């Protein structure tokens, strides 16, 4: 698991630790770790050209001290000082080691042909020490200008603690931000490094241990790795039967949207469900059976559909392609009235927007799996764009307002449960941005719910396997939702070797 803590928590832990350590010890540890990574990114240190972007705070101080270490190993290091002040200790260390520093004019626009721009383009490495966890709001003035100019070069860029311009606690990016190839972060990850859009600016994230771990409380955010998914995933043993492995009920698809049912069923079957009980009208039920003869189908009578819903199930998946008419609403209400875990996706989430009490008043476990547009229907006066920009914040808010677990699909899938650290899936890929992949996910996560996993863990494992399957199915060209189903067993196998 990767753990991420908020700025306030990091500051608190830093304060505790600093009180026991000599002055400057933490910054020395941070700078040494940073210099080590920079040395690895450079083809060789001696004779290389390094440009430091140095803001006025300790983030700039880290860059200056790391720069001094590179300079003492023979790199030509030049610091562009852009803050209203500068870390004096770092600056004198750099100068003593033979590095040079120039003040960048504090004009808002630094032109493309300026000396600073030329130096960045000619450098072997740019080190971004403009702002770290002390940053507030989008980058201002010359900081924004330098970040944009760095982004216009091909020069490899290492960000100090986090890429300047991304919001540490959320991953939101307002305006220009540095795009790093590598981010060297200190003590713990910051949530913004693991959630898009911030995560897309961070490149490879390397954690430098500065001794903070002992002071850190519960994380704000966790990012599961293959081993975490592997240990959580239910595996059949000698005692397993189809009933013990879990029976999943599915109320998805409709005569109009038959594919949704076929895809969700595929996700559940390849996700390892013990038995799948599908309920739907004749045409869609026949289609499901044609694709997946192992499914136990209940054909619903249009005159009395509720009477046909299967009873002996361990969990339910409701919504994809089911519609939002009166029958769908009555069915949703009936299923949510059961004491079983229920996953609501797509149309069921839309229906919930008009009847929030259906979940708010529920005591049994509920998991919502919306994308941003569906989530916007749950939160009045919120647009999908706002949700995309602040995924962690809105997933958390939805979970709290509805009192359930929420999996927000998209660039970084975020899972939130009130009172627990949120989870950020590390496997996000644009390969999944294609019709039907959400249906597969609902079936896959549903199979894990029916297998006995708590909603948060089912969501975590499902999201991880979904992304991994997409990567495994990809052989250079696009993939479809059906390819994803085919790759799920390999994804489960691959957990052990990841
Ligand atoms: N915590 C730890 O455990 C450790 C922390 N360490 C390091 O300390 C870093 C935190 O240092 P910090 O507190 O000095 O703040 P920092 O990130 O340098 O930013 C402040 C400066 O940025 C400026 N500024 C702000 N927003 C801006 C904007 N939008 N656009 C433009 N400018 C903006 C602001 O300028 P002002 O607004 O005051 O003029 C001020 O000068 C941390 O990230 C890590 O690298 C390690 O050394 C050791 C262990
Ligand atoms: K930075």
Automatic annotation (TrEMBL):
Q: Which organism is this protein's natural source?
A: Halostreptopolyspora alba
Q: How is the cofactor bound?
A: Binds 1 potassium ion per subunit.
The chemistry this enzyme catalyses reads: (6R)-NADHX = (6S)-NADHX; (6S)-NADPHX + ADP = AMP + phosphate + NADPH + H(+); (6S)-NADHX + ADP = AMP + phosphate + NADH + H(+); (6R)-NADPHX = (6S)-NADPHX
Cofactor(s) required for function per UniProt: K(+); Mg(2+)
Q: How does it assemble?
A: Homotetramer.
The organism's superkingdom is given as: Bacteria
Starting at the broadest rank, the lineage of the source organism is: Bacteria, Bacillati, Actinomycetota, Actinomycetes, Streptosporangiales
This protein is called what? Bifunctional NAD(P)H-hydrate repair enzyme
Q: Which keywords annotate this record?
A: ATP-binding, Isomerase, Lyase, Metal-binding, Multifunctional enzyme, NAD, NADP, Nucleotide-binding, Potassium
**Residues that coordinate or bind (6S)-NADPHX:** 58-62, 132-138, 161, 260, 321, 371, 439
């Amino acid at each position: 698991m990767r753990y991420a803590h908020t700025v306030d928590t990091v500051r608190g832990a830093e304060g505790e630790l600093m009180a026991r350590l000599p002055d400057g010890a933490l910054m020395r540890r941070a700078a040494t770790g940073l210099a080590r990574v920079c040395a690895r990114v450079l083809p060789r240190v001696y004779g290389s050209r390094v440009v430091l972007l140095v803001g006025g705070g300790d983030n700039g101080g880290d860059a200056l001290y790391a720069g001094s270490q590179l300079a003492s190993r023979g790199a030509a290091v030049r610091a562009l000082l852009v803050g209203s002040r500068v870390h004096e200790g770092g600056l004198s260390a750099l100068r003593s080691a033979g590095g040079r520093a120039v003040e960048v004019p504090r004009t808002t626009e630094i032109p493309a042909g300026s000396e600073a721009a030329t130096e960045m383009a000619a450098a072997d490495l740019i080190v971004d020490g403009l702002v770290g966890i002390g940053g507030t709001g989008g980058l201002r003035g010359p900081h924004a200008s330098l970040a944009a100019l760095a982004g216009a070069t091909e020069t490899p860029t290492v960000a100090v603690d986090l890429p300047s311009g991304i919001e540490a606690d959320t991953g939101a990016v307002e305006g220009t931000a540095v795009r790093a190839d590598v981010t060297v972060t200190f003590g713990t990850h910051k949530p913004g490094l693991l959630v898009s859009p911030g995560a897309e600016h961070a490149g490879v994230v390397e954690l430098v241990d500065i001794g903070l771990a002992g002071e850190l409380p519960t994380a704000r955010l966790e990012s599961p790795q293959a081993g975490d998914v592997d240990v959580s995933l239910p595996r059949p043993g000698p005692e397993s039967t189809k009933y013990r492995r879990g029976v999943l009920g599915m109320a998805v698809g409709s005569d109009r949207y038959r594919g949704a049912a076929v895809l969700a069923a595929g996700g559940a079957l390849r996700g390892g469900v013990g038995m799948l009980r599908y309920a739907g009208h004749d045409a869609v039920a026949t289609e499901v059976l044609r694709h997946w003869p192992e499914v136990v189908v209940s054909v619903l009578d249009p005159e009395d559909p509720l009477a046909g819903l299967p009873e002996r199930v361990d969990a339910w998946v409701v919504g994809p392609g089911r519609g939002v008419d009166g029958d769908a609403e009555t069915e949703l209400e009936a299923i949510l009235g059961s004491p079983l875990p229920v996953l609501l996706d797509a149309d069921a989430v839309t229906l919930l927007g008009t009847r929030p009490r259906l979940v708010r008043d529920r005591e049994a476990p509920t998991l919502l799996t919306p994308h941003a547009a569906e989530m916007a229907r749950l939160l009045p006066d919120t647009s999908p764009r706002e949700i995309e920009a602040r995924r962690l914040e809105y997933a958390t808010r939805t979970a709290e307002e509805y009192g359930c677990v929420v999996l927000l699909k998209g660039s970084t899938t975020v899972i939130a449960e009130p009172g627990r650290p949120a989870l950020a899936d590390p496997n996000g890929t644009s390969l999944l941005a294609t019709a039907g992949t959400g249906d597969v996910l609902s079936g896959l996560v549903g199979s894990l719910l029916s297998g006995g996993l708590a909603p948060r863990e089912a969501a975590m494992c499902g999201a991880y396997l979904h992304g991994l399957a997409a990567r495994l199915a990809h052989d250079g060209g696009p993939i479809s939702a059906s390819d994803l189903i085919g790759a799920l067993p390999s994804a489960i196998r691959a957990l052990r070797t990841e």
